[in-house]
Write a structure and sequence with these properties.
The structure is a single chain. The chain is α/β, with parallel strands linked by helices and 178 residues long. It has a domain at 15-125: Nucleotidyltransferase, domain 5 (2-Layer Sandwich), CATH 3.30.420.10. Helices cover 38% and strands 15% of the residues. It has helices at residues 58-64, 68-74, 78-89, 99-113, 136-147, 154-168, and strands at residues 15-21, 30-36, 42-46, 93-96, 120-123. It has a five-stranded mixed β-sheet with strand order 3-2-1-4-5. The protein is globular and about 45 Å long. The two termini are 22 Å apart. Residues 1-11 and 171-178 have low confidence and may be disordered.
Length: 178
C-alpha cells in the first residue's frame, strides 16, 4: 500500500510519524511507531525490544504508559515492523515534530532489522512557512480541541501533528497551501 507524500495530486495532507521510546539519549530505542496517512487513516506498531535493547527509563514509562512487560508480550518483532514501514512508506517523505530523535530511533529499528530504510523522515518545520510560525500554537490548540491533547502514544500524536499542520494551512491561519 503506497500513500502519497501529501504534496499535490489533490492530497494536501502530509504523512506524519511519531515515535515513543524507552527513554532519551544513549541506549534508548523505539517502542511504538505511529503514522497518520493522507487519506485520514492511522496506525501504530508496538515493538518487541531486541535482546540487547535493555535501557529503560521509568520516567519515560510514566509519560507514555507502556510498561516493558507489555512490549515483550505484545510487541511485534523489529524485522516485521521495519518491513511493514517500508511497504507502507517506500519512496515517501514523512514528517515528525521531533525529527532528531525520531529519525535516530527509526534508524536504530532498521539497523536491528538488518534492512535499508526506503523512506525519508523530515522535520515538520519544513511544512510551515516562517510567516506562519507565530500561528503554530493557535493551530495546535485548535487541533487539540478536536482530537484531544497529546497523549504520548504514537498514533494519536501523529494524528494530532497532522491535524495541527492542516489547521495552520486552512481558514484564517492559512499561510500557504501544502
Amino acid at each position: 500500500m503506497k500513500h502519497g507524500d501529501g504534496q499535490g495530486a489533490g492530497r494536501p495532507w502530509p504523512i506524519m510519524l511519531d515515535v515513543e521510546a524507552s527513554g532519551f539519549g544513549r541506549g534508548s530505542y523505539p517502542i511504538e511507531i505511529g503514522l497518520a496517512f493522507p487519506d485520514g487513516t492511522s496506525v501504530a506498531y508496538l515493538l518487541r525490544p531486541e535482546p540487547d535493547w535493555t535501557h529503560w527509563d521509568e520516567g519515560a514509562e510514566q509519560v507514555h504508559g507502556l510498561p516493558r512487560a507489555k512490549l515483550l508480550a505484545e510487541g511485534r518483532p523489529v524485522l516485521e515492523v521495519a518491513a511493514m514501514l517500508n511497504a507502507q512508506l517506500a519512496g515517501n517523505r514523512v514528517y515528525s515534530d521531533a525529527w532528531g530523535f525520531d529519525a535516530a530511533w527509526v534508524a536504530r529499528l532498521f539497523d536491528a532489522a538488518g534492512l535499508s530504510q526506503h523512506f525519508r523522515i523530515d522535520t515538520v518545520r519544513n511544512l510551515i512557512p516562517e510567516t506562519a510560525l507565530l500561528s503554530w500554537a493557535t493551530a495546535r490548540s485548535r487541533a487539540e480541541a478536536r482530537l484531544g491533547k497529546a497523549t504520548h502514544r504514537a498514533e494519536h500524536d501523529a494524528k494530532l501533528l497532522q491535524a495541527s499542520v492542516l489547521e495552520l494551512n486552512s481558514g484564517p491561519l492559512r499561510a500557504r497551501r501544502l
